[in-house]
Design brief:
This protein has 15 helices and ten strands. With 375 residues, it is an alpha/beta fold. The chain folds into two domains: 214 residues, NAD(P)-binding Rossmann-like Domain (Rossmann fold), CATH 3.40.50.720; 150 residues, N-(1-d-carboxylethyl)-l-norvaline Dehydrogenase, domain 2, CATH 1.10.1040.10. Strands 3-2-1-4-5-8-9-10 form an eight-stranded mixed beta sheet, sandwiched between helices. Helix 8 packs antiparallel against helix 9 and helix 8 crosses helix 13. Bound molecules: nicotinamide-adenine-dinucleotide and SN-glycerol-3-phosphate. Nicotinamide-adenine-dinucleotide binds next to helix 1.
Amino acid sequence: MGENATTHHTNSANNGANDNQIGFKSRVSVIGSGRWGSVAAKLVAFNTLNLSSFHDEVKMWVFEETLQSGEKLTDAINRTNENVKYLPGIKLGKNVIADPDLDNAVKDANMLVFVTPHQFIDNICKSLVGKVRSDAEAISLIKGMEVKIEGPCLISTYISEQLGINCSVLMGANLANEIAEEKFSEATVGYRNNREIAEQWVQLFTTPYFMVTPVQDVEGVELCGTLKNVVAIAAGFVDGLDMGNNTKAAIIRFGLREMREFCKLLFSSVKDDTFFESCGVADVITTCFGGRNRKVAEAFARNGGKRSFDELEAEMLQGQKLQGVTTVREVYEVLRHRGLLELFPLFATVHEICSGCLPPSAIVIYSEKKNIFPV
Ligand SMILES: NC(=O)c1ccc[n+]([C@@H]2O[C@H](COP(=O)([O-])OP(=O)(O)OC[C@H]3O[C@@H](n4cnc5c(N)ncnc54)[C@H](O)[C@@H]3O)[C@@H](O)[C@H]2O)c1
Ligand SMILES: O=P(O)(O)OC[C@H](O)CO
């Protein structure tokens, strides 16, 4: 890894830290095995096989569960080379090895890919403290954030602080099922200050059908990926109310504007250009038309808000997890705490609808009466 990767670590295991020498091959572990986690493993495994600077094998940590057949998910993945529950029908690559033991899955790895629903990252990081290599680099593909008493915390920051390692991010217009079928798409790597590390992540993820661009704006890239899920829920309400494409386009525009304002509220360093990368406008578009948050929000609105998101998620997604409902609650808390709810009417209304305080049709009232954005 690059120079910075070995200089700033504090509380991690020191195993392998002297491997930074000629002939050293990177080892990659993927922490998470949902739909996107499985696709991420497939992308990475294609490259580790083809690039001499990586060990072929990619470990993929599996949150173990027992399938209806009685077989363990991990065993089924290793037997079929498919994630039969979260990504059936797609071969991951023979060099992907599923492992239900988190410590064992990260052991020896110097490149860690975090890709679990954001509500689980707290426990995962806590159990990894002291277990990862001191020279490891991490990347987060997680679209969400942590809100602590002290305030909001990016997932990449949380991983960095908990494990004492640097953490970049990869976000973008990335519906996992389409990338699994090798349909062309783009993504954005957000990095802090080490371009060399960013290039290594770009190399690890890039394939002929997956184009990755590095951007030195980790906060902007990550917050775009996080906040677009809130806009997707608003778009789902519009679809559930059969309000049409013009209304949806208006919601997307309002949403993008609130995303930009919220990003700059938290981090004045966020760059305007970031919103024109795949992680920005492109992800908002794809998620508002083809994402799971949109789909479940549509069902919520069609049911008049009478069936909860939890119930609909369990019924419609079979174990996959929505991020938008939790995220908008967290965003709402941040804004309420700072007395800024009135400046973010779309985000506030989405939360009030999700939590049952307003009916789904309030998204219309929002559009008509509350368009009071700051410049
Ligand atoms: N699916 C996509 O198209 C897509 C695309 C880009 C980014 N993302 C983001 O990637 C992240 C991961 O999403 P995904 O689609 O891979 O997952 P998913 O929603 O498909 O699957 C849920 C995962 O959570 C795991 N899980 C359940 N309970 C758990 C627990 N207690 N502890 C740990 N893990 C548990 C399940 O085993 C499963 O692997 C999310 O932040 C998501 O927003 C998803
Ligand atoms: O299916 P969603 O709503 O979780 O969105 C998936 C991806 O984030 C789209 O880029």
